[in-house]
Amino acid sequence: MLTKSIPSLFTVGNLFLGVLSIILAFSGEHGVAAVLVIVAMLLDGLDGRVARALNAQSEFGKELDSLSDVISFGVAPAFIMYVVAFNDPTVISPAFAWIVTAIFPICGALRLARFNVVAGTPGYFIGLPIPAAGGVLCTLALFVNDINVYVLLVSTVLLSYLMVSTVKYPNFKKAGIPKAAIWVTPIIVAAAILIAIKWPESISKMIFVPLLMYALYGLKKNVDGYFIRLRNLRRKNKRRAMEESNSVKSDL
């Protein structure tokens, strides 16, 4: 029974870090708040792998994971961004800032609900996974002094859209953990927390780059797909026009 509960402990740890991140953001510790979201991503990636290694997958764990993700990667990153960049009524209308901030966790919840009930494509996620979106948002907030606040607003809305879009993203969750290596996971988590506490902002900004590349990968694929469909449509119309022209000539 204890073995079956181990994956849920990772999920609860993910939720705990998400709540703690919100508290720290409220207290002005934005760098530490962002890096706790990153550590929560590590726990979120481990819980499913540990569950598969221990053969402890369950509907309870699946639902708990989704609820935790809404807090840790939806509410927490949106709150960090709001406190850091959007909480200035002289720059942004408060009502507009509230709406943009609320849209992010709402889209995250919709993304998770769809993930739970709609069968996806093997090897891919449909829509940007909420941990990746939350990781990009909370680390992006740390660049508030270097990026215009309106760019941050647009980025928040774009990340929200990517979560509920039909863009395909590579799924790395199938990479498992050997059962014999389960004991190493607490050490990895502890080491990640220690590193995060020592260099919070530096680590967060370093992780921002690969997370951003992952988010942009799907966006690029979506744009490429749009141009391919447009090109195919033009070819189809051109072919149809030629067939109609040939048909008119034969009638004459």
UniProtKB/TrEMBL annotation:
<keyword id="KW-1208">Phospholipid metabolism</keyword>
<dbReference type="Pfam" id="PF01066">
    <property type="entry name" value="CDP-OH_P_transf"/>
</dbReference>
<keyword id="KW-0812">Transmembrane</keyword>
<dbReference type="GO" id="GO:0003882">
    <property type="term" value="F:CDP-diacylglycerol-serine O-phosphatidyltransferase activity"/>
</dbReference>
<feature type="transmembrane region" description="Helical">
    <location>
        <begin position="124"/>
        <end position="143"/>
    </location>
</feature>
<dbReference type="InterPro" id="IPR000462">
    <property type="entry name" value="CDP-OH_P_trans"/>
</dbReference>
<feature type="transmembrane region" description="Helical">
    <location>
        <begin position="203"/>
        <end position="219"/>
    </location>
</feature>
<protein>
    <recommendedName>
        <fullName>CDP-diacylglycerol--serine O-phosphatidyltransferase</fullName>
        <ecNumber>2.7.8.8</ecNumber>
    </recommendedName>
</protein>
<keyword id="KW-0808">Transferase</keyword>
<keyword id="KW-0472">Membrane</keyword>
<dbReference type="GO" id="GO:0016020">
    <property type="term" value="C:membrane"/>
</dbReference>
<dbReference type="InterPro" id="IPR043130">
    <property type="entry name" value="CDP-OH_PTrfase_TM_dom"/>
</dbReference>
<dbReference type="InterPro" id="IPR048254">
    <property type="entry name" value="CDP_ALCOHOL_P_TRANSF_CS"/>
</dbReference>
<comment type="similarity">
    <text>Belongs to the CDP-alcohol phosphatidyltransferase class-I family.</text>
</comment>
<keyword id="KW-0443">Lipid metabolism</keyword>
<dbReference type="GO" id="GO:0008654">
    <property type="term" value="P:phospholipid biosynthetic process"/>
</dbReference>
<keyword id="KW-0594">Phospholipid biosynthesis</keyword>
<feature type="transmembrane region" description="Helical">
    <location>
        <begin position="64"/>
        <end position="85"/>
    </location>
</feature>
<feature type="transmembrane region" description="Helical">
    <location>
        <begin position="15"/>
        <end position="43"/>
    </location>
</feature>
<feature type="transmembrane region" description="Helical">
    <location>
        <begin position="149"/>
        <end position="168"/>
    </location>
</feature>
<dbReference type="InterPro" id="IPR050324">
    <property type="entry name" value="CDP-alcohol_PTase-I"/>
</dbReference>
<keyword id="KW-0444">Lipid biosynthesis</keyword>
<keyword id="KW-1133">Transmembrane helix</keyword>
<feature type="transmembrane region" description="Helical">
    <location>
        <begin position="91"/>
        <end position="112"/>
    </location>
</feature>
<dbReference type="GO" id="GO:0012505">
    <property type="term" value="C:endomembrane system"/>
</dbReference>
<feature type="transmembrane region" description="Helical">
    <location>
        <begin position="180"/>
        <end position="197"/>
    </location>
</feature>
<dbReference type="InterPro" id="IPR004533">
    <property type="entry name" value="CDP-diaglyc--ser_O-PTrfase"/>
</dbReference>
